Amino acid sequence: MSKANYTVEDFVLDPEFRDWIFKNNPEARAYWESFLQKHPEKIKEIELARKILIHLPHEKKQISETVKNDLWEGISQKIEEETVEQSDTKVVNLDSWSAIKQYEQEQLKKSRIAWKRKAVAILILIATAGFFLTKTIQLEETEIVSPIAEMEVHQAPPGVKSTITLEDGSKVFLNSGSKISYAKGFTDSLRLLQLEGEAFFEVAHDKSKPFVVQTGTITTTALGTSFNISSFPEESVSISLMTGVVLVKNGDVEETLMPGEGIIASIQDSGWKKERFDVEQVLSWMNKTLIFKNTPFERASLKLENWFGVDIVFENLVPRDLMVSGKFKDESLENILKGLSYSSRFEYELQGKQVYIHFKP
Amino acid sequence: MNAQLQISEEELTYWTLLKEGEQSGLRFFYEKYVDDLFSFGMGIAKCEHQVKDAIQEVFLDLWKYRSKINSSVLIKAYLYKCLANKLFKLAKVDKKNKSIHSDYMEDWELLVESSESKLINIQIESHLKEKLVKAIESLPDRQKAVINCLFFEDFSYEETSQIMNINLRSTYTLAWKAVGSLKKYLS
């Protein structure tokens, strides 16, 4: 249909017409202005169409936070009930046929689980083998390759987060103030990266080339998995596995992680502990959320400096043992400072990239 | 207009988590879309309890069928489609039973936002807006839903037709009829 025959309805329903009215972008403007010139008889229709568009009321019905939370609780509860039901449904057999069928199914399930176990075991084996392989190759390569290899460096300055897709298709989500570097094109036998700071890795599957992340003396080896590593200066290194299997190694100590498991390595000594982690908290940075849970004030202020790319200056001593807690989703620095200033009793002043904090006596 | 509908890296990450069976993945999509879904649902059903139940079912379905849903599916459009399906089905049953649902107004507030809030320097005539509020209220449910999708959720005609489960031609016809009635109220 030619636009010369447009009715009011057609104008209102034409996305390009709406672009002109609402966005007024240059191409749309040029197009519709020349249209007006050619078809002055359409001015009345266009006027009415515009009137309808700009006065269109949008009724937004809102629900309160409590209702929203209750609703979620309902969903979450039902999911859990169903998982429990699935795992312990008791079957009463009505006749011999159903009894045979039931045992047949159970047998099938068992063999499936066994198969899965075997698969995981094999994966670990491969990962371990891959690791030792890489270790030997690494030694050789550092002598030969490193002087000429071109290094690729990606950096997210404080206040900025970034996403990088590597040559092999793996994805790296870099948190603020973090950096990865690797030899261009990787090497023939492995994908080796150095990380400073925090990143989430989604590793593209490639059994022949283990994916190795180095953070200080700790290496994390994976084949095709997703995991988060946080390794900021003067903070313990923490590695959290979402999917797949990884092998973490520091000197002679090594640990295999399964999904949901994490490692926190202390910086004072070479010890580490393995524990289950809170997915929401670990991945909060990707969701633009800052979470403090009884975090020492000085550590929290380092996080803020990194997150927003600012300098925080203490005008007097930070009270000893001052801890902060709170969850801030996509909040401005000003709002976070305001929130913390009540509980931690301080006054603050924002001057460009400088924040001055003065604790009340 | 479609740029904002493209799947973000963040969504992809949580989508992966959801597929792995992590509740936090589901939670992410719930938090992100529950407000819009509720508002959209209330445009169709009026009864808050129906909408809330339907939203619960939509997310339980998403959980149940997570492994069968293709990753390339636009999650927002998918959620809208499921919700619209459930509510239109309910509306049919309601008509059959001729049952009258009372309107519970307890938990939500009405907020009239006009599309002009996106604009600067446009003279708004409030009496025209009032007229259009009435005009929209009097539209049949399906017409209202199409208008919501096209004008306020920025879905394309293709996406809207999928959400409404009708073909492209009928989507356009519904929208055309709706705008026709709005026009009558203004002239």
Describe how the helices and strands are arranged.
The complex is a heterodimer of chains A (361) and B (187).
Chain A: H1 8-13, H2 15-23, H3 26-38, H4 43-55, E1 57-63, H5 65-87, H6 96-144, E2 151-156, E3 162-165, E4 171-174, E5 178-183, E6 191-202, E7 211-215, E8 218-222, E9 226-231, E10 237-243, E11 246-250, E12 253-257, E13 261-265, E14 272-276, H7 279-282, E15 289-296, H8 297-308, E16 311-314, E17 323-329, H9 333-344, E18 346-351, E19 354-359
Parallel strand pairs in A: 6-7, 16-19
Antiparallel strand pairs in A: 2-5, 3-4, 4-6, 5-6, 6-9, 7-8, 8-11, 9-10, 10-13, 11-12, 13-14, 15-17, 18-19
Chain B: H1 9-19, H2 23-45, H3 48-64, H4 75-97, E1 108-114, H5 126-137, H6 141-152, H7 157-164, H8 168-186
Helix pairs in contact in B: 1-2, 2-3, 2-4, 2-6, 3-4, 4-7, 5-8, 6-7, 6-8, 7-8
Task: Walk me through the structure.
The complex is a heterodimer of chains A (361) and B (187). The termini of chain A are far apart. Chain A is α+β, with helices and mostly antiparallel strands and 361 residues long. Chain A is extended. Chain A folds into 3 domains: 1-89, no CATH class; 151-282, Jelly Rolls (Sandwich), CATH 2.60.120.1440; 288-359, Phage tail protein beta-alpha-beta fold, CATH 3.55.50.30. Chain A has helices at residues 8-13, 15-23, 26-38, 43-55, 65-87, 96-144, 279-282, 297-308, 333-344, and strands at 57-63, 151-156, 162-165, 171-174, 178-183, 191-202, 211-215, 218-222, 226-231, 237-243, 246-250, 253-257, 261-265, 272-276, 289-296, 311-314, 323-329, 346-351, 354-359. Chain B is mainly alpha-helical and 187 residues long. Chain B folds into 2 domains: 1-108, RNA polymerase sigma factor, region 2, helix turn helix motif (Rna Polymerase Sigma Factor, Chain: A, Orthogonal Bundle), CATH 1.10.1740.10; 116-187, Arc Repressor Mutant, subunit A (Orthogonal Bundle). Chain B has 8 helices and 1 strand. Chain B has helices at residues 9-19, 23-45, 48-64, 75-97, 126-137, 141-152, 157-164, 168-186, and one strand at residues 108-114. Classes of the chains: A alpha+beta (361), B mainly alpha (187). Chains A and B meet through helix 1, helix 2, helix 4, strand 1 and helix 5 of A and helix 1, helix 2, helix 3, strand 1 and helix 5 of B. Strand 1 of chain A pairs antiparallel with strand 1 (108-114) of chain B, so a sheet runs across the interface.
